[in-house]
Protein backbone atom coordinates (compact mmCIF):
# COMPACT_ATOMS: atom_id res chain seq x y z
CA UNK A 1 0.00 0.00 0.00
CA UNK A 2 1.40 3.37 -1.01
CA UNK A 3 1.64 6.30 1.36
CA UNK A 4 -1.29 8.31 -0.15
CA UNK A 5 -3.57 5.27 -0.03
CA UNK A 6 -2.60 4.53 3.60
CA UNK A 7 -3.27 8.15 4.56
CA UNK A 8 -6.66 8.12 2.84
CA UNK A 9 -7.70 4.87 4.50
CA UNK A 10 -6.53 6.15 7.89
CA UNK A 11 -8.55 9.35 7.44
CA UNK A 12 -11.64 7.32 6.54
CA UNK A 13 -11.21 5.11 9.61
CA UNK A 14 -10.78 8.17 11.84
CA UNK A 15 -13.97 9.69 10.47
CA UNK A 16 -15.85 6.45 11.10
CA UNK A 17 -14.44 5.95 14.58
CA UNK A 18 -15.24 9.52 15.57
CA UNK A 19 -18.91 8.51 15.79
CA UNK A 20 -19.90 6.48 18.85
CA UNK A 21 -21.39 3.17 17.71
CA UNK A 22 -23.59 1.27 20.16
CA UNK A 23 -26.89 -0.58 20.19
CA UNK A 24 -28.50 2.22 22.20
CA UNK A 25 -27.34 4.82 19.69
CA UNK A 26 -28.57 2.71 16.80
CA UNK A 27 -31.95 2.30 18.52
CA UNK A 28 -32.45 6.04 18.96
CA UNK A 29 -34.61 6.42 15.80
CA UNK A 30 -36.96 3.70 17.08
CA UNK A 31 -37.13 5.00 20.64
CA UNK A 32 -37.60 8.57 19.46
CA UNK A 33 -40.51 7.46 17.27
CA UNK A 34 -42.05 5.71 20.27
CA UNK A 35 -41.56 8.73 22.48
CA UNK A 36 -43.45 10.91 20.01
CA UNK A 37 -46.63 8.95 20.80
CA UNK A 38 -48.68 11.03 23.33
CA UNK A 39 -50.04 7.92 24.99
CA UNK A 40 -46.59 6.52 25.51
CA UNK A 41 -45.26 9.84 26.80
CA UNK A 42 -48.18 10.14 29.17
CA UNK A 43 -47.58 6.70 30.64
CA UNK A 44 -43.77 6.81 30.49
CA UNK A 45 -41.99 5.48 33.56
CA UNK A 46 -38.55 6.24 34.82
CA UNK A 47 -36.10 3.69 36.10
CA UNK A 48 -32.82 4.37 37.78
CA UNK A 49 -31.28 1.27 36.20
CA UNK A 50 -32.33 2.21 32.66
CA UNK A 51 -31.19 5.83 33.10
CA UNK A 52 -27.77 4.75 34.31
CA UNK A 53 -27.48 2.31 31.40
CA UNK A 54 -28.34 5.00 28.87
CA UNK A 55 -25.82 7.41 30.36
CA UNK A 56 -22.88 5.00 30.45
CA UNK A 57 -23.77 1.66 28.84
CA UNK A 58 -21.48 -1.20 29.76
CA UNK A 59 -21.97 -4.98 29.55
CA UNK A 60 -22.42 -5.18 33.33
CA UNK A 61 -24.97 -2.35 33.41
CA UNK A 62 -26.90 -3.88 30.51
CA UNK A 63 -27.01 -7.24 32.27
CA UNK A 64 -28.27 -5.54 35.44
CA UNK A 65 -30.85 -3.62 33.40
CA UNK A 66 -32.05 -6.83 31.74
CA UNK A 67 -32.41 -8.63 35.07
CA UNK A 68 -34.25 -5.64 36.50
CA UNK A 69 -36.75 -5.53 33.65
CA UNK A 70 -37.31 -9.28 33.72
CA UNK A 71 -38.21 -9.12 37.39
CA UNK A 72 -40.35 -6.03 36.81
CA UNK A 73 -42.34 -7.58 33.97
CA UNK A 74 -42.78 -10.82 35.91
CA UNK A 75 -44.35 -8.89 38.78
CA UNK A 76 -46.37 -6.79 36.34
CA UNK A 77 -47.76 -9.88 34.59
CA UNK A 78 -48.77 -11.44 37.90
CA UNK A 79 -50.46 -8.20 39.03
CA UNK A 80 -52.25 -7.82 35.70
CA UNK A 81 -53.59 -11.39 35.73
CA UNK A 82 -54.70 -11.03 39.35
CA UNK A 83 -56.43 -7.70 38.70
CA UNK A 84 -58.20 -8.87 35.56
CA UNK A 85 -59.33 -12.07 37.28
CA UNK A 86 -60.74 -10.15 40.25
CA UNK A 87 -62.51 -7.69 37.95
CA UNK A 88 -64.14 -10.42 35.86
CA UNK A 89 -65.15 -12.36 38.96
CA UNK A 90 -66.77 -9.31 40.59
CA UNK A 91 -68.58 -8.39 37.37
CA UNK A 92 -69.85 -11.94 37.06
CA UNK A 93 -71.25 -11.83 40.61
CA UNK A 94 -72.77 -8.36 40.70
CA UNK A 95 -74.02 -8.37 37.13
CA UNK A 96 -77.72 -8.37 36.39
CA UNK A 97 -78.34 -11.05 35.51
CA UNK A 98 -75.30 -12.87 36.97
CA UNK A 99 -73.05 -14.49 34.42
CA UNK A 100 -73.12 -18.23 34.77
CA UNK A 101 -70.23 -20.10 33.12
CA UNK A 102 -71.10 -23.52 31.78
CA UNK A 103 -68.73 -26.50 31.58
CA UNK A 104 -68.75 -26.21 27.80
CA UNK A 105 -67.55 -22.62 28.05
CA UNK A 106 -64.83 -23.68 30.48
CA UNK A 107 -63.74 -26.41 28.07
CA UNK A 108 -63.65 -23.99 25.16
CA UNK A 109 -61.70 -21.51 27.28
CA UNK A 110 -59.23 -24.20 28.28
CA UNK A 111 -58.75 -25.17 24.66
CA UNK A 112 -58.20 -21.56 23.62
CA UNK A 113 -55.78 -21.13 26.54
CA UNK A 114 -53.87 -24.26 25.45
CA UNK A 115 -53.64 -22.90 21.90
CA UNK A 116 -52.50 -19.49 23.17
CA UNK A 117 -49.93 -21.14 25.45
CA UNK A 118 -48.54 -23.17 22.54
CA UNK A 119 -48.29 -20.03 20.43
CA UNK A 120 -46.66 -18.18 23.31
CA UNK A 121 -44.18 -21.02 23.79
CA UNK A 122 -43.32 -20.95 20.07
CA UNK A 123 -42.89 -17.18 20.23
CA UNK A 124 -40.65 -17.54 23.28
CA UNK A 125 -38.53 -20.10 21.43
CA UNK A 126 -38.26 -17.73 18.46
CA UNK A 127 -37.33 -14.86 20.76
CA UNK A 128 -34.71 -17.00 22.56
CA UNK A 129 -33.20 -18.07 19.20
CA UNK A 130 -33.21 -14.45 18.04
CA UNK A 131 -31.55 -13.32 21.28
CA UNK A 132 -28.91 -16.04 20.96
CA UNK A 133 -28.28 -15.04 17.36
CA UNK A 134 -27.98 -11.40 18.35
CA UNK A 135 -25.54 -12.28 21.14
CA UNK A 136 -23.40 -14.28 18.73
CA UNK A 137 -23.57 -11.42 16.25
CA UNK A 138 -22.54 -9.01 19.00
CA UNK A 139 -19.55 -11.16 19.95
CA UNK A 140 -18.50 -11.38 16.30
CA UNK A 141 -18.85 -7.62 15.94
CA UNK A 142 -16.77 -7.11 19.09
CA UNK A 143 -14.01 -9.36 17.73
CA UNK A 144 -14.12 -7.58 14.39
CA UNK A 145 -13.97 -4.23 16.18
CA UNK A 146 -10.89 -5.31 18.12
CA UNK A 147 -9.29 -6.55 14.89
CA UNK A 148 -10.09 -3.25 13.15
CA UNK A 149 -8.64 -1.30 16.09
CA UNK A 150 -5.44 -3.36 15.98
CA UNK A 151 -5.12 -2.96 12.22
CA UNK A 152 -5.80 0.77 12.56
CA UNK A 153 -2.95 1.08 15.04
CA UNK A 154 -0.69 -0.80 12.63
CA UNK A 155 -1.89 1.43 9.79
CA UNK A 156 -0.94 4.52 11.78
CA UNK A 157 2.62 3.21 11.94
CA UNK A 158 2.65 2.25 8.26
CA UNK A 159 3.37 5.70 6.69
CA UNK A 160 6.41 6.23 8.93
CA UNK A 161 7.71 2.74 8.15
CA UNK A 162 7.15 3.31 4.42
CA UNK A 163 9.09 6.56 4.57
CA UNK A 164 11.92 4.83 6.45
CA UNK A 165 12.06 2.01 3.90
CA UNK A 166 12.05 4.46 1.01
CA UNK A 167 14.91 6.39 2.62
CA UNK A 168 16.82 3.12 3.09
CA UNK A 169 16.26 2.20 -0.55
CA UNK A 170 17.45 5.61 -1.72
CA UNK A 171 20.50 5.36 0.55
CA UNK A 172 21.35 1.90 -0.79
CA UNK A 173 20.97 3.07 -4.36
CA UNK A 174 23.17 6.09 -3.77
CA UNK A 175 25.76 4.28 -1.63
CA UNK A 176 27.66 2.80 -4.23
CA UNK A 177 25.78 0.85 -6.31
CA UNK A 178 26.56 3.27 -9.12
CA UNK A 179 29.37 0.91 -10.00
CA UNK A 180 27.90 -1.63 -12.44
CA UNK A 181 30.09 -4.47 -11.18
CA UNK A 182 29.34 -3.71 -7.53
CA UNK A 183 25.64 -3.07 -8.04
CA UNK A 184 24.95 -5.97 -10.33
CA UNK A 185 23.43 -8.04 -7.54
CA UNK A 186 21.23 -5.15 -6.43
CA UNK A 187 19.68 -4.83 -9.89
CA UNK A 188 18.70 -8.47 -10.31
CA UNK A 189 15.06 -9.46 -10.91
CA UNK A 190 13.06 -11.12 -8.17
CA UNK A 191 13.66 -14.72 -9.27
CA UNK A 192 17.42 -14.23 -9.58
CA UNK A 193 17.43 -12.42 -6.26
CA UNK A 194 15.65 -15.34 -4.59
CA UNK A 195 18.16 -17.75 -6.14
CA UNK A 196 21.01 -15.61 -4.87
CA UNK A 197 19.45 -15.54 -1.41
CA UNK A 198 19.14 -19.35 -1.43
CA UNK A 199 22.76 -19.63 -2.52
CA UNK A 200 23.85 -17.33 0.31
CA UNK A 201 21.77 -19.36 2.75
CA UNK A 202 23.46 -22.57 1.58
CA UNK A 203 26.87 -20.96 2.05
CA UNK A 204 25.89 -19.80 5.51
CA UNK A 205 24.65 -23.30 6.35
CA UNK A 206 27.95 -24.78 5.09
CA UNK A 207 29.91 -22.29 7.18
CA UNK A 208 27.77 -23.18 10.19
CA UNK A 209 28.57 -26.86 9.67
CA UNK A 210 32.28 -26.09 9.37
CA UNK A 211 32.14 -23.96 12.51
CA UNK A 212 30.36 -26.78 14.32
CA UNK A 213 32.92 -29.35 13.16
CA UNK A 214 35.79 -27.05 14.13
CA UNK A 215 34.12 -26.35 17.44
CA UNK A 216 34.27 -30.07 18.21
CA UNK A 217 38.09 -29.98 17.84
CA UNK A 218 38.49 -26.93 20.07
CA UNK A 219 38.85 -28.86 23.37
CA UNK A 220 41.54 -31.13 21.89
CA UNK A 221 43.40 -28.17 20.40
CA UNK A 222 43.12 -26.32 23.69
CA UNK A 223 44.65 -29.25 25.56
CA UNK A 224 47.43 -29.46 22.98
CA UNK A 225 48.11 -25.75 23.33
CA UNK A 226 48.25 -26.12 27.09
CA UNK A 227 50.71 -29.02 26.73
CA UNK A 228 52.91 -27.05 24.31
CA UNK A 229 52.74 -24.05 26.64
CA UNK A 230 53.97 -26.19 29.50
CA UNK A 231 56.82 -27.57 27.35
CA UNK A 232 57.66 -24.05 26.17
CA UNK A 233 57.78 -22.83 29.76
CA UNK A 234 60.17 -25.67 30.57
CA UNK A 235 62.37 -24.84 27.58
CA UNK A 236 62.34 -21.15 28.50
CA UNK A 237 63.45 -22.02 32.01
CA UNK A 238 66.23 -24.23 30.63
CA UNK A 239 67.27 -21.48 28.18
CA UNK A 240 67.38 -18.91 30.97
CA UNK A 241 69.48 -21.29 33.09
CA UNK A 242 71.83 -21.99 30.15
CA UNK A 243 72.27 -18.28 29.41
CA UNK A 244 72.94 -17.57 33.06
CA UNK A 245 75.50 -20.41 33.17
CA UNK A 246 77.15 -19.15 29.96
CA UNK A 247 77.44 -15.63 31.33
CA UNK A 248 78.85 -16.96 34.55
CA UNK A 249 81.39 -19.11 32.67
CA UNK A 250 82.42 -16.18 30.49
CA UNK A 251 82.94 -14.02 33.53
CA UNK A 252 85.12 -16.70 35.16
CA UNK A 253 87.15 -17.10 31.94
CA UNK A 254 87.71 -13.37 31.63
CA UNK A 255 88.77 -13.27 35.23
CA UNK A 256 91.34 -16.06 34.67
CA UNK A 257 92.82 -14.53 31.45
CA UNK A 258 92.94 -11.04 32.87
CA UNK A 259 92.13 -9.27 29.62
CA UNK A 260 94.22 -11.49 27.30
CA UNK A 261 91.09 -12.63 25.54
CA UNK A 262 90.67 -9.29 23.78
CA UNK A 263 94.23 -9.46 22.45
CA UNK A 264 93.76 -13.00 21.20
CA UNK A 265 90.54 -12.01 19.48
CA UNK A 266 92.22 -9.11 17.67
CA UNK A 267 95.15 -11.31 16.57
CA UNK A 268 92.69 -13.93 15.30
CA UNK A 269 90.88 -11.34 13.21
CA UNK A 270 94.24 -10.09 11.80
CA UNK A 271 95.31 -13.64 10.85
CA UNK A 272 91.96 -14.31 9.18
CA UNK A 273 92.29 -11.09 7.19
CA UNK A 274 95.83 -11.97 6.13
CA UNK A 275 94.68 -15.42 5.11
CA UNK A 276 91.90 -13.98 3.00
CA UNK A 277 94.28 -11.55 1.25
CA UNK A 278 96.88 -14.23 0.48
CA UNK A 279 94.23 -16.60 -0.76
CA UNK A 280 92.89 -13.98 -3.10
CA UNK A 281 96.37 -13.02 -4.35
CA UNK A 282 97.50 -16.57 -4.91
CA UNK A 283 94.08 -17.58 -6.21
CA UNK A 284 94.11 -20.74 -4.17
From TrEMBL:
Domain Kinetochore protein Sos7 coiled-coil: from-to ranges: 71-145
Keyword line: Coiled coil
Pfam families (alphabetical): Sos7 (PF20882)
Source taxon at top rank: Eukaryota
GO cellular component, one term: kinetochore
Stretches assigned to coiled coil: 106-263
A Gene Ontology biological process term: protein localization to kinetochore
Name used for this protein in its record: Kinetochore protein Sos7 coiled-coil domain-containing protein
Organism: Coniochaeta ligniaria NRRL 30616
Amino acid sequence: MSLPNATAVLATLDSLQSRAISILKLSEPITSALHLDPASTATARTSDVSNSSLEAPTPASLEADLAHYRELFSKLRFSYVEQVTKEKFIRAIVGDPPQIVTPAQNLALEQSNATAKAQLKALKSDVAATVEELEELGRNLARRWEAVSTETAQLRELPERIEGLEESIDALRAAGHGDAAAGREMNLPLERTLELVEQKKRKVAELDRQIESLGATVPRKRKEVERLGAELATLEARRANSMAAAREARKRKEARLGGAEDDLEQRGRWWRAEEAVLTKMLEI
